[in-house]
């Protein structure tokens, strides 16, 4: 969930160098409406909205959410009801528009490649979000946090403006629920043609899943990202029974180390991610048969990152100074995937801050559908208020240590909700566990650009066979 950290500014800066710049596609509707309510400094979103192919839809978004000069320090942000399986749900149109705007801005003014990143677990959002990105001409879609078997077909059909169905898992139902999405309906008769199908990159932790996806033409992506467990954000849990170390983090073993020869044998391009930031790592990745590396943490700390500047400074200063702890917390994420949490004071990593935060669930990206006893379809999240979760049949034991990543990550990009009595949502900060690039790229903690990162990584291409960095290094933002 790189919510807004890997925003359009960062992706554009990377794409301009000829490398793939990737925007995070999670929670973009909230990022859009809160930025509009903050006065849309620079007018960027209004410029993107003006390019949206359905002026009526874009105009309605502007009308409802834009606040000239912003709501101000104490002002509360208007929210929207979360996405549901209902085809008439208004959050769908907003999701399409928001993904369009983010990708459109990332692609503005250059010809470099731009990708968008989704979490498979956030199933209800994927079809409308990907359609918005395709409308803006996205070049790649990267999907992890689950088994992205249906994404290749989804990308094909959406780019042809054909209706799609997403099979959504409903807890308590024996079969998934087919949720339809019709891209043509979103266009309300507007003439749109010539949409390009983006390439699909599946994010995997081990070759076994890659081989499974590769087996059938229906599920085969165009390439893979092989992500290790020290990468920022969510990670796959270790194979086998979960064992925890003295800090309570999962213990990974040799079975969790990917065999890159097996990856190479599949014959599709792949990129190595997770602590792979440096020229030597690029050279090693290429020697192992990879097309390049995917890096995230180094970009999260650069000047074009969407991470709130104060938090960014603290991360850099602590890593270069007294030390920074980054836990791989197996409980924090409602998805139940381990999630990297930086130990910064004033954030949800501080148990006192987490305990003082009243549970509120008003964004709901990580809610999962469930079947209620009366047969109705409901939605619940283990980080929501306990009474509500238990009323919905949720097990209290599964709520221990869960954090509201939706509100926490939105706060980390300076768009946190203000609550009654002057409370402000505390941030939660995710970053990778390998930040060894910092002493090289910013030895004195000085600000650095995304472009300087790409230049540094490209040194690893010296002496490797093949074309130059623009075609092959594959350094990517989050
Ligand atoms: C702040 C942050 C947020 C991230 N969010 C996501 C995400 O939403 N989805 C995803 O697939 N990967 C996410 N990642 C992982 C990156 O895409 C990338 O694979 C990883 O950062 C590479 O390893 P590194 O952190 O050691 O550079 C995130 C990484 C960071 C630092």
TrEMBL record:
Keywords: Monooxygenase, Oxidoreductase. One of its GO terms (molecular function) is monooxygenase activity. Pfam families: NMO. The keyword NADP does not apply. It comes from the Bacteria. InterPro entries: Aldolase_TIM (IPR013785). PANTHER family: 2-NITROPROPANE DIOXYGENASE (PTHR32332), NITRONATE MONOOXYGENASE DOMAIN-CONTAINING PROTEIN (PTHR32332:SF33). This is Nitronate monooxygenase. It comes from Streptomyces xinghaiensis.
């Amino acid at each position: 969930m790189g919510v807004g950290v890997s925003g359009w500014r960062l992706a554009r800066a990377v794409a301009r160098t000829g490398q793939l710049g990737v925007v995070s596609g999670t929670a973009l509707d909230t990022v859009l409406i809160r930025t509009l309510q903050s006065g849309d400094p620079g007018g960027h979103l209004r410029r993107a909205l003006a390019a949206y192919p359905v002026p009526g839809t874009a105009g309605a978004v502007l009308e409802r959410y834009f606040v000239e000069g912003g709501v101000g320090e104490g002002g509360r942000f208007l929210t929207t009801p979360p996405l549901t399986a209902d085809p008439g749900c208004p959050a769908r149109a907003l999701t399409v528009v928001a993904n369009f705007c983010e990708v459109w801005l990332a692609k503005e003014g250059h010809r470099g490649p731009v990708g968008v990143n989704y979490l498979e677990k956030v199933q209800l959002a994927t079809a409308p979000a990907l359609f918005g990105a395709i409308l803006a001409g996205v070049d790649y879609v990267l999907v992890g946090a689950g088994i992205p078997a249906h994404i290749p077909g989804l990308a094909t059909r959406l780019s042809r403006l054909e209706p799609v169905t997403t099979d959504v898992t409903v807890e308590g139902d024996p079969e998934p629920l087919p949720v339809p999405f019709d891209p043509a309906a979103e266009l309300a008769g507007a003439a749109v043609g010539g949409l390009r199908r983006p390439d699909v990159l599946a994010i995997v932790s081990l070759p076994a899943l890659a081989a499974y996806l590769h087996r059938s033409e229906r599920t085969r992506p165009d390439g893979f990202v092989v992500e290790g467990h020290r990468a920022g954000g969510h990670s796959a849990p270790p194979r086998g029974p979960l064992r925890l170390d003295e800090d309570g983090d999962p213990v990974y073993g040799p079975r969790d180390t990917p065999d890159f020869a097996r990856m190479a044998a599949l014959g599709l391009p792949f990129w190595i991610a997770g602590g792979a930031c440096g020229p030597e790592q690029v050279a090693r990745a290429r020697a192992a048969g990879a097309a390049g590396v995917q890096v995230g943490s180094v970009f999260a700390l650069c000047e074009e990152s969407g991470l709130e500047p104060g938090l960014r400074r603290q991360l850099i200063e602590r890593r270069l100074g007294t030390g920074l702890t980054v836990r791989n917390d197996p409980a924090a994420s409602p998805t139940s995937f381990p999630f990297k949490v930086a130990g910064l004071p004033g954030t949800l990593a501080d148990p006192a801050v987490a305990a003082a935060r009243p549970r509120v669930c008003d964004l709901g990206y990580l809610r999962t559908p469930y079947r209620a006893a009366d047969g109705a379809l409901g939605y619940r999240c283990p980080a929501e208020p306990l009474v509500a979760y238990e009323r919905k049949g949720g097990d209290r034991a599964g709520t221990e240590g869960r954090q509201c990543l939706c509100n926490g990550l939105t706060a980390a990009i300076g768009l946190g909700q203000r609550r009654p009595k002057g409370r402000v949502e505390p941030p939660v900060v995710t970053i990778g566990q390998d930040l060894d690039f910092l002493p090289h790229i910013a030895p004195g903690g000085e600000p650095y650009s995304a472009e300087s990162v790409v230049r540094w990584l490209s040194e690893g291409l010296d002496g490797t066979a093949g074309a130059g960095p623009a075609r092959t290094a594959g350094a990517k933002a989050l």
